[in-house]
Each structure stands twice: as C-alpha cells, then as structure tokens.
Design goal:
With 181 residues, the protein is mostly beta strands. The protein contains 2 helices and 13 strands.
Length: 181
C-alpha cells in the first residue's frame, strides 16, 4: 500500500498495490503492521456499509464526541464517491480544513479519517456502495454532525446535491473565528 499525507493532519490517502494475473487481482485493504509503519494507530472494532441509489446524494458530515471518538477507514465497493475529512479538533494546526478525494470500486483507494474529524461523502454514480471500519462502536448519545453546506468550511462538492437526509440538513452551523481556514 502507498500512504500519502493530506492537508488534514493525520488523515491519509491509501492506494492499494494490487497483484494481478489471468484470474483477476488481489489487494490488501488493511494491515496493522503497514498502518503502524505510517504512524497510524487504528484498531477496527466495527465495519459498516452504506448504499445510495441516486447520483449526487450527500451523507455527512458525521463524527462522534468523547469518550467515543472514532477514526474511520473508508473505501468504495461499488460505483464512486467524493469522500471528505473535515478537521474539527480545535488544537489542530489544520482545524477547519477539509480534504476530499474520489474513492471508487475501480481505483480501490481508501481514506483514513482520524479521531476528531467529521466525515461525509457525495455519490458520483447511481447505485454506489461504501464500506468503512471504525475504531469505536457506534454510540448514539455521542453522534454529532455539522452541516455539509456550512459556509465556515466551504466544502466544494463536485455535483449538485440531489438527496440529503433531514438530519444532515439540520445539523447546526459551526461558529468559528473568521481567521480559520
């Protein structure tokens, strides 16, 4: 696997190194040793899948508060989506920054989202499926979110939004100082 740092501290884009032959291909999707070699402490305790019928669907921006902070390792298993990590850690030098990358079933690329960051995505194709592992169990009383269209963050979604849940539409706008970017 190839690991690349991005502008959100601790987030990483991970590209697989598939082995191909006449049968098809094989690739590693997660390895404790390789992650540790790239300073990622990640022990998955739960795996989740999401399926969206319509192109342009947005899900997010979700996170969990302490004591249930969670890191996520996200990949696409069908179709493609634009995946976003948003730094909400006030003491982070990348606080308020977001990073987006296209994950697809074809490219096998993954995004590691560290604890304290919100996560969301927009489908780029019909019938898109995502798969992610988390470092903490889903804890309903710790589940939070910020609006996907919060002007404080100016996330540039690639498509016009077609579907968004009522919950995601109604997360509060985050109040930040204007000098954060």
């Amino acid at each position: 696997m190839h690991f690349a740092d991005v502008n959100v501290i601790g987030a990483k884009v991970i590209d697989p190194t598939p082995h191909s032959d006449d049968r098809g291909q094989f690739m590693r999707a997660w390895c404790t040793r390789e992650f540790a070699e790239h300073d990622i402490e990640f022990l998955p305790v739960q795996a989740n899948m999401g399926f969206s019928r319509q192109k342009g669907t947005i899900r997010g921006m979700h996170f969990q508060e302490a004591p249930a902070l969670e890191a996520k390792l996200v990949r696409c298993t069908r179709g493609s989506f634009f995946d976003v990590a948003l730094d909400l850690r006030p003491r982070s030098s990348s606080y308020g920054r977001w990073y987006g990358v296209v994950l697809s079933a074809d490219n096998g690329r993954m995004l590691f989202v560290p604890e304290g960051c919100a996560h969301g995505y927009q489908t780029l194709e019909e019938e898109t499926e995502m798969y992610y592992m988390t470092s903490a169990f889903y804890t309903p009383h710790a589940a939070r979110g910020v609006r996907f269209d919060d002007p404080a963050f100016q996330i540039k979604w690639p498509l016009t939004t077609t579907v968004v849940s009522e919950q995601d539409r109604n997360w509060p706008l985050l109040q930040r100082e204007r000098n954060c970017s």
